[in-house]
Design a protein that fits this description.
The protein is of the alpha/beta class and 320 residues long. It has 12 helices and 11 strands.
Length: 320
């Protein structure tokens, strides 16, 4: 395959991608989808290349799928956990980046609790930097894999009604998805109690999201006629030092949880998504999480294909 280097190496934010570039990444990922079912799941496009996964926050799906993606493309994948890195001895993220760069990796994938960590790292290293989730800011590869999943199950993204329900205030997934889905022509409903909705969320993409993103504090309104229902967990780990935003989890679950009953507000063929990890029985009833309309494990599968595309694009460029 021939590649063109006319694409940026870093992937820090969905804001840096226009709709055509997002579609190019999704089309690139489509080429890798069938590989998951092949007996030998290996291509050699990144042979001899090195990818460092630098994770300062817990992860099951993102870290594993980036590692698998790198290995399926024959790259060397090195995992560095923040908890066992020298940042615990006082080293700054800048110095960590400079030291890793001295080992000449081709890409660094970073997850960090600081919104802005990926951009900061990109400013001090010469290799590609991919944001695997930075604080409450963005999780761009999650939004890309979600768009790929929607395309697969609904045939398109353009013109769909997508409800994003739950703890929007602390969610990088909600931000990246609202931007990505609006760019691809969907209409997005942000649905939560007002204490879990950041002020101005509908303006994160300027005029585009002002037109395409709307906020509601009623679950029935948010789900009414939706094609896609994306549920988010409450991110208790980001509440430290904050006043309580809702009376208790049980009440939040009763008013904003997705059950077989409340899913009835959405279209009969609506799909149910969740980036994981799920808090079963809180934002999502187990019968719905395991039901026929849930595409949650399909999201995980797309995570590998999309991250293969993102790594190839970062290191080699886009398919010409
Ligand atoms: N969706 C997601 O980012 O999951 P992990 O935290 O397990 O990576």
């Amino acid at each position: 395959m021939r590649y063109t280097r006319d694409v940026p190496r870093h992937l820090v934010s969905i804001a840096d991608l226009d709709a055509a570039e997002i579609v190019r990444i999704l089309d690139h990922a489509d080429r890798f989808w069938a590989l998951a079912d092949a007996p030998v799941k290996k291509l050699d496009t990144l042979r001899g290349r090195t990818v460092i996964n630098l994770f300062f926050e817990s992860s099951t799906r993102t870290r594993t799928s980036f590692e698998l993606a790198a290995k399926r493309l024959s790259a060397e994948a090195i995992n560095v956990a923040g908890s066992s890195s020298s940042t615990t001895k006082g080293e700054t993220l800048r110095d960590t980046g400079r030291n890793l760069m001295a080992m000449h990796p081709d890409a660094i994938v970073i997850r960090h609790s600081y919104g802005g960590a990926a951009a900061l790292l990109a400013s001090v290293v010469d290799c590609a930097v991919i944001n695997a989730g930075d604080g409450q800011h963005e999780h761009p590869t999650q939004a890309l894999l979600d768009a790929a999943t929607i395309r697969r199950h609904k045939g398109r993204v353009d013109g769909l009604e997508v409800a994003i329900v739950g703890d929007i205030a602390h969610s990088r997934v909600a931000r990246s998805n609202a931007l990505c889905l609006a760019k691809l022509g969907a209409r997005v409903r942000i649905c939560a109690p007002w204490t879990l909705i950041p002020r101005g969320i509908e303006l994160i993409g300027g005029e585009l999201t002002r037109e395409r993103v709307r906020v509601t504090t009623r679950l029935e309104d948010g789900l009414d006629g939706a094609d896609v229902v994306m549920m988010l967990r409450v991110q208790h780990e980001r509440f430290e030092g904050e006043a309580s935003r809702f009376p208790n989890t049980r009440e939040l679950s009763r008013t904003f949880g997705l059950s077989e009953r409340t899913l009835g507000y959405a279209k009969p063929d609506a799909i149910v998504m969740h980036p994981g990890p799920i808090n079963r029985g809180v934002e999502l009833a187990p019968q719905v999480a395991d039901g026929a309309r849930a595409v949650i494990l399909s999201q995980v599968s797309w995570g590998v294909a999309v991250r293969m595309a993102v790594l190839e694009r970062a290191i080699l460029g886009a398919p010409a």
